[in-house]
UniProtKB/TrEMBL annotation:
Family the entry assigns: Belongs to the 4-toluene sulfonate uptake permease (TSUP) (TC 2.A.102) family.
Subcellular location as annotated: Cell membrane
Organism: Croceitalea dokdonensis DOKDO 023
Protein name, as recorded: Probable membrane transporter protein
Alphabetical keyword list: Cell membrane, Membrane, Transmembrane, Transmembrane helix, Transport
GO cellular component, one term: plasma membrane
DNA-binding is among the record's keywords: no
Topology with respect to the bilayer: Multi-pass membrane protein
Family matches, as InterPro entries: TM_pro_TauE-like (IPR002781), TSUP (IPR052017)
UniProt superkingdom: Bacteria
Residues annotated as transmembrane: 20-38, 58-81, 88-106, 118-136, 148-165
Length: 166
């Protein structure tokens, strides 16, 4: 993901938004189709080739730097790895904390996309984030593993469509 973020810093500032959206949506939908195909085949095989993790990481890095869209790619990767729901959520939380901290200087110093106003807005949103965290934990506790997998696939697909039509 670090390599993808660095690539995103270079190519992202001047990339046409429409081109980025189409590319990301196509990659997400193709990846989702592969995951659904694996699930329907009842395949328990986990991809082990370095190119799968590396490729997904680079795509997630580029997409998080350019459009904060790494969630779709990390969802697909975690689904392919067959992570249980609690590990899925915990790993994603740590991953996004670390990648967002890594991106911070690039946004502040290179792209200059962070301002005092945006920081103040983020501080005002902290209580809502806390509520969302609590609600999310309660939901994850109530959903079984199979339903959780299905939920992630559906939400990722809806997210891809939202990117396309936004």
């Amino acid at each position: 993901m670090v390599m993808g973020i660095l690539i995103g810093v270079v190519i992202g500032k001047d990339m046409p938004e429409h081109q980025f959206k189409i590319g990301m949506v196509l990659l997400i939908i193709i990846s989702l189709a592969i995951i659904v195909y694996w699930d329907r085949r009842k395949s328990q095989t986990v991809p082990t080739h370095w190119s799968f993790a590396g490729g997904t990481g680079v795509l997630a890095g580029i997409s998080t730097m350019v459009g904060n869209l790494a969630g779709a790619f990390t969802n697909l990767f975690f689904l392919a790895m067959r992570l249980p729901k609690n590990e899925f959520v915990g790993t994603a939380a740590w991953l996004f904390l670390l990648t967002n901290l890594f991106k911070l200087p690039f946004h502040a110093l290179v792209w200059k996309t962070i301002s005092t106003e945006s920081l103040l807005l983020n501080l005002r949103l902290l209580p809502a984030m806390g509520i969302g965290l609590w609600v999310g934990v309660q939901l994850v506790k109530r959903i079984n593993q199979k339903q959780y997998r299905r939920f992630i696939i559906i939400v990722t697909f809806i997210g891809a469509l939202a990117i396309l039509f936004r």
